[in-house]
Each structure stands twice: as C-alpha cells, then as structure tokens.
Write a structure and sequence with these properties.
Length: 439
C-alpha cells in the first residue's frame, strides 16, 4: 500500500503572482496532486480513484465470448519494458505484475500482438528508491526495448529521464512527476489529477451548483495545487470556490465546517486521508450537513466505514475506472484474469498494471511493419479515440493533449459515481471537462 507520506512530496514552488494557467506553476501543482491521486489508486481500490468492484467471474462460455476469437501473434517478440516499484518496506505494488502479464498474454493470443508480433515484457522493479529507479531506466536503455510501460511509481523523476533521453516511448497509466508529464516521448493514458479536478468542476456545473467548499489536509504542496489547479476549472464553470485547511490529525473539524457553512456552499469536497475523512464526516453529521460531497478513493477505507457507519452513503467519487459488473470492459478484465492469472488480486493496482499494457496495445492497433521506438511514438501520436481500459468508455487520443500545458496527456475524461454506505460504487456518468481547461 502506498503511504500517505506521499502527500508531502516536494513538487516545486509557485510564484506569488501568476496567470491561472501559467504552465510552470500549474505543472508543479499537477505533480503534487497527481502524487495524491496516484496514492489513491494504490490503496486497495480500483485504479486512478475508483471504488472497489466485485470480482465478476463468468462461465467458461461467457468468458470465451468476452475474449473473442483467437488471433495469435507470430514472429520475433517485441521487447517492451514494464517497470514497477514492486514490494518494499514502504509500498507493495506486486499485484501489478501478474495483471500486466495477463494483459500481455491476451494481447498476444487474441489481438495479434503488436503489429502482428508477440509482446514480451522485460520487467524491472525499482524497490521504490531513486537509485533502483535510475537503474531500471538505464537497464531499459541498455536492453534496447521498444517502449517502456508503467502503472504508477513514486520514483518517476528518476526512472523516466534516461528512457526519454534515449528516445524510447514511456507510457504510464498514472504518472506523477514532471519528467513523466513533460517528456518528448512520454504518454499518460489517464488524465491523472486534471481528470479528477476537472471532472468535479464539470459535474458541479452540470448540476447547477453555484459554490463549492473544499476541505483539504494542510500540506504546503496541496495548498499550491488547490490554488493553481482546482480554482481555474471551477472559475471557468462559473462556480465560486473556497478552501479550508485542516491540520493533519485534527480530531474535531466542527469549527472548520461551521465557518465553511457561513458561505452557503452547494457542494463540498474532502481532500485528504482516511483520518481527514473521518473528522470531516463526523463534523458534517454533528452539524446536520447533508449537501453533496466529493471524496477521494483513499478516503473510502474500512476505518472510515467503521468510524462513521453511514458517512459514505451518497458521497461522490470522481474516477477513471468503471468497476460495475455490468460494464463490458470490466467483464473483459475479469475474463482475462480468470484465464491467465486466476489467483491474482483485482484491486486498483492490478487494474493499473493491466490497463497500461492493454491500453498500449489498443493505441497501436493500426501499427504495421517495423516496430521501433520511433514507429511506436508515431503510432501512439496517431491514436484517436482508443478505449481506455476499464474506464466505462473514456477515449484516449495521444496526438494532441487536451490540456496544452501537459503534452503527455492522452485524455482528460473521468466518471462520477455515488457511493453506498460501504463505499461501493453505484452507477457511473461520464464527464468531459476539456472545455474548462481551454485557455
């Protein structure tokens, strides 16, 4: 599990005066919040901020129908790196790998591989250290892989530079560093924190909310994120924005919510860890506040359910994963793991490891001929409206970022779902916040 300490990871500083979308300042904020969002996807939920879904094991016939017709890859394998932080004293990302390998097997058996050739994963584990990450990056260069895939890492600024400097495409599912978001050959399949912040603003706009109160764990880099990343899309949506900051570990936030209520917000957003969520939800119960409230994935925790039994009921989660058992792409995820990794856990990390491999293959569905780093970069930049795996239909297009100051982004779409009291998702609605990021 990724540690909450990531909230305080340094992400650069903001100038005292700046235009709302000044790229350098906003990048620092995106990186800071992306670390938080990435931590959310690693806390036992389902991906880049999705509530956990049920395992949907299908019958053999149904699974085969989901997998489709066999289309075997042939010829010399295409070596593609897969980097993971693996297991260390601080994190345990080990569930990424079996899911990634399952996706690669499916690509080779049913999608014809990459340009007709088998996809072969070259695995390296960073052990969540800068030295280990740099070593993995250098290994990928020395082994001359055609591309490198990664779900999420706390060491992006160390692992990505040697890969990108060598002109090798670097494809991440949940990047959380400047190197991963700005590199010339870097691609982000999800919209990371941009999709989450913009999705909340778009949903609020659609609902006709006129004001939002955000309650944030008081970490300096998150203050920068709130100012530079959150306020602009809400302002573009015509929604008044106010933020209150809760000291880490504060047991009673009733005074903070009492003050926030004086501004009569239409909707709230709690941004922090499970302890922040518990204190916030208890304060809202004490004050009788029943307004719509956004939460983050890592706040959907058994400790929160236990401390505030009905606190999560109806709360809103912005996510990039649809884990409803009725969703065809989530059914495909389960069918693939049933076939190739039946004993593997199916949490958020597993979805991320799986999604970056399958997303890479979907993005290169039209690639033919020679497979090299250069042709892969060209192929990915030609991708238009490919399906982001386990997203409920979110498309990704890598030729032009939907957000000009983050060239690696291939999408900015997200979903919103209301939660049950146990923190499980209900139905999903797609959100497109791209107009809120246009300059």
């Amino acid at each position: 599990m990724r540690q909450q300490a990531a909230l305080g990871s340094p992400a650069g500083s903001l100038p005292t005066r700046t235009r709302p979308w000044r790229a350098a300042a906003t990048l620092a904020s995106v990186v800071s919040l992306a670390v938080l969002v990435a931590a959310c996807g690693s806390s036992g939920g389902s991906g880049s901020g999705a509530a956990g879904g049920a395992k949907a094991t299908a019958s053999s016939a149904a699974s085969q129908a989901l997998l489709g017709n066999v289309k075997k890859a042939a010829g010399a394998p295409v070596s593609v790196g897969f980097i993971t932080d693996g297991r260390s004293s601080a994190v345990d990302d080990s569930v990424e790998l079996p899911a990634a390998k399952a996706a690669a097997s499916y690509v080779n058996d049913y999608l014809g591989g990459v340009a007709g050739r088998p996809l072969e994963l070259v695995v390296c584990q960073t052990s969540n250290t800068p030295a280990g990450a740099a070593d993995c990056g250098n290994q990928m260069v020395s082994q001359k892989v055609a591309a490198v895939l990664l779900n999420v890492s706390g060491q992006g600024n160390a692992v990505a530079p040697p890969i990108i400097a060598a002109g090798i495409p670097y494809v991440a599912y949940q990047p959380s560093s400047a190197a991963e978001l700005m590199g010339k050959t870097a691609f982000s399949l999800t919209g990371t924190s941009v999709a989450i912040a913009g999705g909340a603003a778009k949903y609020s706009q659609q609902k006709g909310y006129k004001s939002i109160a955000v309650v944030v764990i008081d970490v300096p880099t998150l203050r920068a994120s709130i100012d530079a990343l959150f306020k602009p899309p809400f302002a573009k949506a015509g929604i008044a924005f106010s933020a209150s900051y809760a000291a880490p570990g504060s047991p009673d936030l009733t005074p903070l919510f009492t003050s926030a209520e004086q501004k009569k917000p239409d909707v709230y957003w709690i941004i922090g860890n499970p302890a922040t969520a518990v204190s916030s939800l208890k304060a809202m119960e004490t004050l009788g506040i029943t307004k719509p409230t956004f939460v983050l994935q890592q706040e959907i925790d058994p400790s929160v359910v236990k401390a505030v039994p009905d606190g999560l009921a109806g709360k809103l989660l912005i996510t990039t994963n649809n884990v409803a058992t009725s969703d065809p792409d989530y059914q495909l995820f389960n069918a693939i793991l049933d076939k190739y990794a039946p004993a593997s856990p199916r949490n958020g990390l597993a979805i991320g490891g799986y999604a970056v491999v399958l997303g890479f293959a979907r993005g290169l569905a039209g690639l033919t001929g020679e497979v090299t780093p250069a042709t892969i970069v060209t192929g990915l930049k030609s991708t238009t409206n490919a399906l982001l795996p386990v997203s409920g239909g979110i498309p990704f297009t890598c030729g032009k970022s939907p957000v000009t100051f983050l060239p690696a982004l291939c999408s900015d779409g997200s979903l919103v779902t209301a939660l049950t009291k146990e923190g499980n998702p209900t139905s999903y609605v797609k959100l497109d916040p791209s107009d809120l990021y246009q300059q």
